[in-house]
Structures are given as structure tokens and as C-alpha cells.
Amino acid sequence: METITGHGLKRVVKYLRAAAFLGLFGSALLVLAALLLLMYVKVLGAPPLAVPQSTLYFAEDGTIIGETSYGQKRYWVPLKDISPYLVDATISIEDRKFYEHSGFDFKRIAGAALADIKAFGKVQGASTVTMQYARNLFLEHDKTWARKLREALYAIRLEMNYSKDQILEGYLNTIYYGNRAYGVQAASQYYFGKNASELSLSEASMLAGIPKGPGSFSPFASMERAKQRQGVILKAMARNGYIKGTEAEKAYAAELALTGRDPHRDLKAAPYFQDAVANALRNQLGLNERAIALGGLKVYTTIDPIQQEAAEKQVQAVISPDSEIQAALVSIDPRNGHVKAMVGGRDYGKSPFNRAVQAIRAPGSTIKPLLYYAALGQGYTPSTLIRSEQTTFRFENGRPDYTPHNYNNKYADGEITLAQALAVSDNVYAVKTHLFLGEDTLVETAKEFGISTRMAKVPSLALGTSGVRVTEMANAYSLFANGGKKVEPTLITRVETANGKVIYENEEIDELVLDPARAYVMTQMMTGVFDTTLNGYTAVTGGTIAKGMTRPYAGKSGSTPTDSWMIGFTPQLVSAVWTGYDDAREIDGVPEKSYAKQIWVRFMEDALDGKPVKAFKPPRDGVTGVYVDPANGKLAVKECPVRRFTYFVSGTEPVEYCTDHLEHTHSQDGKDAQRQKGGKSWYKQLWDWGD
């Protein structure tokens, strides 16, 4: 019996030794596996913390004008800008040992597993904040063991590479609070209309209870359940030492002012401008759609909310609601090219087509200042005389004849100056000048002014028959307003990533592309559009709106059978307005023909209200101002009934005094004889085209 017992003991000892060996071996394997896992996690490195966030568009004054929501509201705020009450409430209810464990609360996991076994089902969660953040950040919410393993792996990576505060910040910025609000900032704005940093204890404890079940514990889903959940959280906060019992009772009893509205969710400010900004992000900065939509970018734009409101208001106020005509407006700061207002149509909801940047329409006579700028470099001056009469131009090589017509078929039937031709918009003068300079001159000059739309080299180009964009014309006139400095239409000044890294910053152009003297002379001539002293055989084209002006403006109107334009400026602001039908039908109604001018003058007066009245400043040298008789362009004498101070490029100012109004020339016959004294103009070669 003893022998059997001895053998039994030996066998037991043998088994124990084997078990111990296997245990040690198994432990070694587990340690090795753990070490390999840690090494693998270390090799993988820190997982990125970026999450899909709304890209925000800011106006020049820092206000938010819009965002890319795509059904979810996401913002990222640093932990220091989140109410401490919300931080404490979240830790108390979600993971009270968050700052103690290394990503896994094993005691809590064991307790949850035991509870599940007793209930024969899943009744208690054990995910820590780190585990929930890993799930929210990287993984789909499927309930599989594979997902659980990936979640655990991500949790380890987070704990190994980030501080507790970084993990908590990420968690609070990604958790779902219902009503399309992801993160504490979006939730705070939606539920209480305030930033996350401003939440009270009562508000924070209510908000912290929602993530457990947004469909059940949101105060908009059930105030009763939301209050119950709030009470549980407040007691947990008191139990964990974050607040006193009396504070919990007071917070629970406090009435909450719920808003249920995201202040940015329904923003529709400057919708055409926002589309143009998104297009610039794609085409100029090379960002893809996902980066724009969900990259959490901060896009700082040039838009001026006051000017934008004025632009939209005047378009709606001037155009009859019964009219089908469309409109576009662009205003630009000529000093830097910043677009301050943009209207691409009358109703974005009905038509998002942006006529300010996408439509190519004939600019009419608004192209003439560019033509005459070129002419000033080829011997022309504001006093240059050319005969205005109905003319048919005949060409060689089988080209068809061309007969331009003035508005209402009115002509001077005599010579007029360049200054007056621009003011009354004489078409014959323009075509003669265009052909004298060469049909390619205006095409090349337009390029100098930044116009990239292709133009046709035809006689009628002088009358604006080749289409351009509204933004191009506004920008072109900016070069007159700023004295010849190159600018480009600018919508964006800076773009930052969600973490504050600047990925784009606009740099101003420092390049002179026009002759400052010629640019200034042209600007002064364009003030004549509103000056009735330049009335001749017909009235100046801006006379109908001059009475509503409270400051000096320069500009030019333009019209074709299908398009109506007004472009003008001060030293601070340029604006271009177009009106017309999308289907290019003719503008027949008299009121509709005046819409562009009325919108322009009302907008400019609104946009510049309260700003200093500035005159156009001449360059330091290169221009000379003298008084001339507007009718003949000669130096005015005291006998001249009308005198106008006119600038010339230095050295080109007139030297001959007007004698038309002296006593011995008062008769009409004498005046005609005096005007013809000295023979015909040196531009006689142009008349060879005419009948």
C-alpha cells in the first residue's frame, strides 16, 4: 500500500512539474506575445487624431458665413476651451478611473462580464474613454470580436503615444450628441446656443448624459429621461468629489434654456460667393473634395458682410419681382483685388449658376476705356477730335462692310473730342480708333488688364461684342482705380488646417502693369460720364444717376441688345453690375435697360456710406491739368461758357486757346469757320473706310 502511495505521489509530482513547466512556458509565450504586440504597436506609431470636421468659411471681419456640413456638424476645440463641468461630468459617468488606468479598466471589464453572465445577455458596458475614442475615430460600430480586437489595438496605440488630456480632448470632440452634432462644440451650440467653454454645471450635466443614447436621453427626445440621466450624473460627480451635494441639487433644479438650433447650420450668406470659394480651393489650391468638405479647414475670405448685404438688397429692390431678367454684381477693393461682395443671380435656390464668374456676356461700351487707354499711348489725348457721323467701313480681302450705329442713331455730324466721345459713348469714334490702332491692339490691351477670356479680332470689338466675365471687368477697372498696379480677383486670404497649420496665405502682387499717367488720365475722363458739362449732341450716359451720388465716381456704362452693364469706382471700391436674360433674349423694356445703373449707384452709395470721401489722386509726375472747352478740347478762356478741368499726359496738353466765343466770332457762321480753321484732322485716313 505504501509502495502504491509512493508511486502515486511521484506521479502527482511529475504532473505538477509538467503543469508548472507548461505554465511557465505559457507565461513566457504570453509575455513574448505581449512584447511583440507592444513592439508592433510601437512600430505602427502614433495614430492620427484627425476626424471629419466641418470646413468653416470666415468673412473678413472674422464672422462665420458658412460651412460644409454634409449632414454632420463637427468642430474641434482644445480641452482648455471646454467647460470643466463637462469634462468632470463625462469622466464621472463614462470612465471615473480614466486618469488611473492604461486604456483598459480590467476590474470594470470583469464586473461587466459577470453581470452579462448572470443576465444571460449584454446588460453592462465596460468600454473606457480610450476604447470609445478608438471606436469613434477609426472603426465601424459593428459588434464583432474582430472589431473588439481592433478597438483594443487602437486603444493601446493611443495610450502609448498620447497623453490622457490629448485622448480626452479627442474623445470629447468626436462623440455623438444627437441631432447631427458631433463633438462638444457642435452640441453646445445646438442645444444651448453657446460655446463649449461657457456651459454651466446644469447644462454640462445634461449634455454629458446624451451620448449614452441620443435618441432616448436628448432633452428634445424626452425631457423626463434626460432629467433622470442628469440626476445620475450629478450624483456621480458629487460622489467623485468634483462638486458638493448642494451644487448638484441646485444644478438639477435649474431651468435650462434650450435652443435646438445650430447658429451656423442654416447660414446662407453669400451663397454664390461660397461656391466660388470652394471652386478656388479646388482649382487654385489643389485641394480635393474630401479635404474641402470634411477637412475641418478654416477658410478666411475677403467678403465684407455689410457690402454683401447691400449688394443683395439692391438687386432685389431694383429689379421688379415680375421680371425674369437676371443680375450679377462683383465689388473689389482695387488696392489688393479682394472681392468684397458677389451676387451671381437673383435667387440661389432657384438657380445656383453663378453669373458673376461663370457667365460670359458681351460687355458693350464698358470695353471702351481699355481701348482708349491704348490710344493714349498712340498719340491720342482727351482733346483729340474725330468726326462722329454715320459711317460704313469697307474692307479688302472680301471682308463684309461694317456700319456701327450710335444709340438712337444720333450723331454729332461733326468733330467731337475723345473726352466727350467717352462720356456720351459715341460708337463711331470708338470703331475709328480701334481700326486706326489695329484690331489686335485691344485684344492685347485686354490681356494687360487681366482679361483672359478670348476676344475676337473684329471691328465690332470696340463696342464690346466679345464676351467677358463680370469678375474680369471689375478687376480690369481696378487697375484704373489703383493707378496701374496689377491685381487679381482674390477670394481667400488664408487657409488653416483643423490644428491651426497655415497651408495657404495670399501674397499681394507688387507689379506695375499700366502707365500711371495714362491710367490717371483715363480715370479722370471716366468721371465725365457723370458730368453734364460734357453733354453734346446727346447727354452723358451717367447723367440719369448723377443726382444720387454723394462723392466723386469714375465709370462707364455699356449695353448690347441682350446685355446691360455699369462699372464704376472710387479709390476705395470698384463694382461691376450686369443684367440680362439667361437665354440671351433682347432687353426691350425701358425700366429693365436701367436696372444695371440703378443697382450700381445704390450699391456704391450703401457700401461706402460712412467712409471718407476720397478724390482720385494724380501720380507724382507725368500728368498736367488744364481747363479746356469740352466742345473743342482747346484751352479755355474766360469767354468760354463751359470750362472743364482736364488732365493730360504731360507734354500732350493743348497749347491752342479757344477762340470760338470771342466777340468777333459769336455768329454761328464765324464759329463754324473758326472750327474748320487749320484744315482737317490728322485722322483723315480713317475716313477712307466711310461713304
TrEMBL record:
Give the transmembrane ranges.
Answer: 20-41
**Could you give a GO molecular-function term held by this entry?**
penicillin binding
Q: Which PANTHER family match?
A: BINDING PROTEIN TRANSPEPTIDASE, PUTATIVE-RELATED (PTHR32282), PENICILLIN-BINDING PROTEIN 1B (PTHR32282:SF11)
List each copy of the Penicillin-binding protein transpeptidase domain by range. 329-576
- What's a BP term from Gene Ontology annotated to this protein? cell wall organization
Q: What is this protein called?
A: Monofunctional biosynthetic peptidoglycan transglycosylase
Chief localization: membrane
Q: Which GO terms describe its cellular component?
A: outer membrane-bounded periplasmic space; plasma membrane
Record domain Glycosyl transferase family: where = 62-237
Please name the InterPro entries in this protein's record. Beta-lactam/transpept-like, Glyco_trans_51, Glycosyltr_51/Transpeptidase, Lysozyme-like_dom_sf, PBP_transglycosylase, PCN-bd_Tpept
